[in-house]
Amino acid sequence: MDMSLVAVFVVLVVVAASAFFVKPMLSSPKAMEDIPGSLGWPVIGESLSFLSEFSSPPGIYNFIKTRQQKYGKVFKSFVLGRFTIFMTGREAARTLLTGKDVSLNLFYTGQQVLGPTSLLQTNGEEHKRLRRLIGEPLSIDGLRKYFEFINMLAIQTLDNWTGRKVLVLEEASTFTLKVIGHIIMSLEPTGEEQEKFRSNFKVISSSFAALPLKVPGTAFHRGIQARDRMYEMLDDIIHRRREGKDFHDDFLESLIMKHTKGADQEANNEKLTDKQMKDNILTLLVAGHDTTTAALTWLMKFLGENPYVLERLREEHQQIRESGKGGENLSWSEINNMPYTLKVISETLRRATILPWFSRKATQDFEIDGYKIEKGWSLNLDVVSIHNNPEYFPQPELFDPSRFDEPMKPFSFLGFGNGPRMCPGINLAKLEICVFIHHVVGKFKWTPLEKDDSVQPTLVRMPKNKYPVLVEPL
Ligand code: HEM
Q1: pLDDT tier at 72 (50, 70, 90 boundaries)?
Q2: Which of 4, 220, 261, 366 has the most crowded Cβ, counting Cβ within 10 A?
Q3: Which pLDDT tens digit goes with each residue over 129-164?
Q4: Is residue 350 assigned to a domain?
Q5: Binning pLDDT at 50, 70 and 90, where does residue 281 land?
Q6: Distance between CA 386 and CA 130 in Å, rounded?
Q7: Which domain holds residue 63?
Q8: Would you state the pLDDT for residue 436?
Q9: Which atom of ligand 1 is nearest to 104's Cα?
Q10: In which band, very low, low, confident or very high, does the pLDDT at 17 lie, cut at 50, 70 and 90?
Q11: How far apart are the C-alpha atoms of 161 and 156, rounded to whole Å?
Q12: From the CB of 119, is ligand 1 less than 6 Å away?
């Protein structure tokens, strides 16, 4: 896209989003007067500067840094149709991520697509209940039964990499989607159902960053339609399972077993409805797919740029191979024996900061850094500044996994978040990455085909060019 197209796109997004959010604009919070910062231009606020930084290599870091230098750690702005208070630092992280006075603050598109009973839209006891529900299948023990599938799929995926030009992001995306489709509903990695699942998911995924206009022909409308098709697919599978026509030992089966209503009325009240099940399955897909895809892609990119780290990582995996429990025979026990790989993953998440800010809404009045925050305000925890703070991470621009040799200060590393909303998919993400990387570094060397550090203008940060590389056998 050239710059003029970007400008048109940005103006369209901003005007439409602002028109949609006209109500919060009219109720311009006078109470915010005490908070330093600028609300920018009428209607569009500071959205243009915010969006124009989106796809630059440092992302919104530039936007944030300029304002922090001017106003300090807490400042107000008006971006993407919202009056927002940006804040940073470990104390702000602790307050926003563990405090009782905030809830998650999804954009309208996300709220509509994911449905009202999604984990991301619940708070308090209901949120805890849903977390418990997904906690067990996504725990290390719960994931063990999927290890063979993940290992086999990684080997198959990489089998056709040799001597080819590969778009790492595309490959990672296909791999992670097949993994989650298998874990949730035992989808075969190839075939018509997989294709349907994949194409619907792609449309849903791109609707999150779309204009909030539910009119036929728009990306948002297509997203809602694809969501409905995905739910029909799930209804069909749930029906077959309940009829006993199909059985698989997977996430969906465990939900169906626990949550099919019976004669006991009291017990029935505790059970999830089919709608709740579907909303939360979709939530896991959406929250887990782009993030893991991005992490795998950034990791390979950082390895490509840091030969010393790649060499150390190879040594760790070579030792596993030499023990006879690696390569095609990679065993579950070895997954828990990759200390350097785990540090490389953490450093990747720090350097890339895949989710550069965490959005919250104040559910009560409270104070932070001496500023009064009022109920209903939109609050963004600026993670990118925390991950680039030299006080916590000396020479933050370096990709240095050994900085994780020492325990981190609390709330300084937020790759998977913290507190009650910390990522429940952390074990799955690490498992997928460890397996995939074990085979990649053991088999291949790769050369990037382009030097372009731009980033896609999406909520999850990913290399814009999908990281094209030429792969050769070692
Ligand atoms: C490397 C991959 C991943 C990264 C970097 C990542 C990162 C995060 C972060 C930072 C949060 C907290 C956001 C906040 O506090 O606002 C989060 C939440 C979440 N993640 Fe992940 N995630 C990854 C993979 C996964 C996977 C594989 C799944 C599921 C299969 C998943 C499901 C979720 C869900 C459902 C939440 C919301 C939790 C809640 O609100 O209680 N994530 N993730």
Answers
A1: very high
A2: 220
A3: 999 988 888 999 999 999 999 999 999 999 999 999
A4: no
A5: very high
A6: 29
A7: 1-117+355-387
A8: 98
A9: 16
A10: low
A11: 10
A12: yes
pLDDT at residue 106 tops 50: yes
Judge whether 362 lies within some domain: yes
Pick the more confident residue, 174 or 55.
174
441 CA distance to ligand 1 middle (Å): 26
Note the pLDDT of residue 405. 97
Work out the percent of the chain whose per-residue pLDDT is above 70: 94
Kindly indicate the confidence band of residue 108, based on its pLDDT and cuts at 50, 70 and 90. Answer: confident
164-171 mean pLDDT: 97
**Encoding tokens for residue 159?**
């089998």
424: Cβ below 6 Å to ligand 1? yes
What span, in angstroms and rounded, lies between the C-alpha atoms of 415 and 399? Answer: 15
Name the residue at shortest CA distance from atom 20 of ligand 1.
Answer: 423
H, E, C per residue of the chain: CCHHHHHHHHHHHHHHHHHHCHHHHHCCCHHHHHCCECCCECCCECHHHHHHHHCCCCCCHHHHHHHHHHHCCEEEEEECCEEEEEECCHHHHHHHHHCCCEEECCCHHHHHHHCCCCHHHCCHHHHHHHHHHHHCCCCHHHHHHHHHHHHHHHHHHHHCCCCCEEEHHHHHHHHHHHHHHHHHHCCCCCCHHHHHHHHHHHHHHHHCCCCCCCCCCCHHHHHHHHHHHHHHHHHHHHHHHHCCCCCCCCHHHHHHHHHCCCCCHHHHHHCCCHHHHHHHHHHHHHHHHHHHHHHHHHHHHHHHHCHHHHHHHHHHHHHHHHCCCCHHHCCHHHHCCCHHHHHHHHHHHHHHCCCCEEEEEECCCEEECCEEECCCCEEEEEHHHHHCCCCCCCCCCCCCHHHHHCCCCCCCCCCCCCHHHCCCCHHHHHHHHHHHHHHHHHHEEEEECCCCCCECCCCCCCECCCCEEEEEEC
Does the pLDDT at position 23 exceed 70?
no
Query: Is 5 within the bounds of a domain?
Result: yes
Measured CA to CA, the distance from residue 298 to residue 281 in angstroms comes to 26
How far is ligand 1, taken at its centre, from the CA of residue 400, in Å? 24
Find the 420 Cα to ligand 1 centroid distance in Å.
11
- The structural domain count of the chain equals 1
CA 394 to ligand 1 center in whole angstroms: 26
CATH number of the domain enclosing 72: 3.30.43.20
> Which pLDDT belongs to residue 1?
37
Give tens-digit pLDDT for 365-399: 998 888 999 999 999 999 999 999 999 999 999 99
